[in-house]
Fold:
Amino acid sequence: MPFPDWREPARLLAVSYGPPTEAQAALAEHAELDLPDDTPHDVAAALLIDALAPTLTLAPPGPPTHGQLEYLHDLGHEWRMAPWKATRRVASALIVVLVSRQRVRTLQTLRPASGDLVGVSRPPRHDDEVVFLLDRPHARPLPPSVVVSSVSASGRVNFRGGSGLAAWPEHVTMLARAADVWTSPTEGWSQPTLFER
Structure:
């Protein structure tokens, strides 16, 4: 669901690295799983699924993939410092937690809102989606600036112009805030769609 600015997406993302819920703590106690209070919410969920996998007839916990370990290392995480057993589910959850923390910090710094004029940079190698159709040879070149239309619950900053134009906030640079430039909501930047020549 898109929002007019960064506030609600940042709040929603912060849930992933907040503390375990009371229900998670109760289930961990029932499963005889040690769940420290500082365990991030999403990691607690992964630990619970791993602990209950045999009871739930799920696949047993497997080791993290090489790609997960590389990505976690790039995010600054080392398993030897973690109190949890390294499994594929826990690694996935931990990636979500670390990326969410970064996204929230970036959203709080950038503070994007509908109507803001921004620039977009090329994503690093680990970004999971193509930003602004950059890597497609037939795509039109990236314009020097785009206009924010909304911010998704995932933290992606969406742009005017159609074709699902969006970027993660860490690839966005604020050029001008609509609130600082326009005096009425009917004013604003114009931006052609990708299909206009």
Notes: The chain is about 35% helix and 10% strand. The radius of gyration is 20 Å. The domain at 112-181 is CATH 2.30.30 (SH3 type barrels.).
